[in-house]
Structure prediction request, 429 residues.
Amino acid sequence: MSLPAPGGPGEGRSDDPSHNTYRFHSAAAPVVATGNWLVKFEKDVSPHVRKTLLQQSLGGNSHIAATSEYRSTALNLTDLVQIADAVVLDRLGVAVLKGTDDVSSRSAELEDMPGIRRVMPEFFVFSYDEAGDSIHEDTAEVTWGVDAIGASRCSFSGAGVKLGILDSGFDKTHPDFAGRPVKMWSAFGCAGDDFQGHGTHCAGTAAGPHATTGRMRYGVAPGTDLHIYKVLNDKGFGTDGDVLAGIEKALEDGCDVISMSFGRGVASGTLPHSIYDDVASAALDVGVLLIAAAGNSSSRDVGHIAPVDYPANSPSIMAVGAVDSRLRVANFSNGSAPGASAAAIGGVDIAAPGAGVFSAVPMPRQYRRLRGTSMAAPHVAGVACLWAEMDASLRGRALWTALTSNAKSLHGARGDVGAGLVQSPFTER
Prediction:
């Protein structure tokens, strides 16, 4: 037996959840299980013991692969998941198990085994965005978002800071990035090119150039060291396993900030995803900040406020809500339900521009306006890089504090706007 193969360029998966039912530029993220399972090991469990525990769980003849195998051989992650019964992400201490009736029936028993911390079902995750609002600012020097967060008045560019964008890849042929080194990795065994557009748009917002010919500046941190991790396929979806593999690779590459503009819906009152929270908390401990979009499932105009999606509802991941050009909470932005306390589980931590956001998309279109918390999260990631360049001690939790303590106050519930509108260092208040 083998894990289902991730879709390559232009392809879905053998268990493709689309079926013409879902739009991948969708307001609400579907909830679709892959059939596989995630296992989180205790911190002190060695790689050898991890394999032993999985062998006990799956049977003595099972093929247990590890990410170290494709780091040191010609195998890529796609090869491994096709031939293995389980793949262990070494650095994170997480394994993805092929879903079988036996594994499903024994999930509670597996979680009780010494050395295993969590056993949870794996789900698909989806990108968040929709066609953007029309904002007439074509004669402006910078987009409204870059201006509102003060990046246009900041003397820093994010130079020397490593930024990881986990998304649908990147169009390295885009002329605005000509001559700029961009490191790329894919969970799907391909080059990491973006045939969907979401990843290029997010990367452009976070780290687009300081100036373009005849166009507004749209990038927040143009000097950052940009790393691209393709964890969503060309239909705009991936799995928890793909995302965790991307996080692991970003940590291995030394990224200081990791931006994620995807997720899946949760029910009101749902507890944070404990595996994502374990991974994000460990990342904070080593000085890496994970930032994620809160989700687009709300319809505030009719009183519906959806809770913050996975993985952003983790207390150790900075959840980003969206505001429009009038600095009002965007109609679609997830947050806290009416009457929820300021300390409600899974609220927004900070807000950023997320409506009518102009940025790069793959050629030949070149540019597009989109709206969504997907567009808000890379604004925060870019600002994080500016603060990190300003002060090398601002990493992990210290960087989180710098962002939230310097945010601009906004009207709205704390669970909807968090600390307020993210602000760049040394900007006018």
About this structure: The longest helix spans residues 373-390. The chain has twelve helices and 17 strands. The longest strand covers residues 116-127. The two ends are 59 Å apart (CA to CA).
